[in-house]
Amino acid sequence: MAPSIVENNETVNLFAAAQTCLMTRDPGEKLARTHRTARAWRDGELTLESVASPVPIGEPGRPERPRLVSPKELPRRDPRTNQGHAALLHAICHIEFNAINLAWDAVYRFQTMPKEFYDDWVRIADEEATHFELLHRCLANVGHRYGDFVAHDGLWEMAQKTAFDPLVRMALVPRVLEARGLDVTPGIAKKLQARGDECAVAALEIILRDEIGHVAAGSRWFRHLCDERGLDPESTFRELLSRYMTGRVKGPFHVEARRKGGFSEAELAWLESVG
After folding, report:
1. Does residue 15 form part of some domain?
2. Counted domains in the chain
3. Taking the complete model, does pTM exceed 0.85, yes or no?
């Protein structure tokens, strides 16, 4: 039987457990803690009693490598070459590692949401950990491991920018950054298929399926928060994009995946017009 995070029949707080997962630096330990915490939440072993206000988090738990650089310094990721192939797999691994931190930060950061919010984001953290595991095996198949290439910090920078409000977080992380993954994943899979990387293609099929659900969760909670505040979701989304993303999300768009992820027809039409 797998170990539990609950010992000696003590009550464990979900928010404290989420913070521990978030701040764990070693990837293997972070994955194991994430899976144990998600299982404990599903089994009803964790409470939602907030014991302290969330503390500001400048940097999440992550290993010393990869070294973080500006996007301009990233290596070419052309899967037609051995090095480019490995760099591409590493870049996707890095996205999934950051996604674990982003999911746990949503749990820890926003402590006054309905229980169903935590059901969603604990599940998402668990799935992101699985995605990292799947892709890391593919990276190992080509002779590399996480940390062998440089990476950038754009995802966590957005987490910091949106830490003050769950509505802004739900709008800009799941509905912009993760939704962009829906758009580009089929094209990446096609390139890796041409490379003969069946491991990565199979992993990306699972990731695309799960990420639709992650974007849908973001859409659901974004609209929930808009309803609570008497805001129109579509105009609010456009306003937030204008404020934080210069009003533009780059296309082309995977329209069917975005539709399943909770984008309205009006939103899809607007994105097409500005993208």
Report:
1. no
2. 1
3. yes
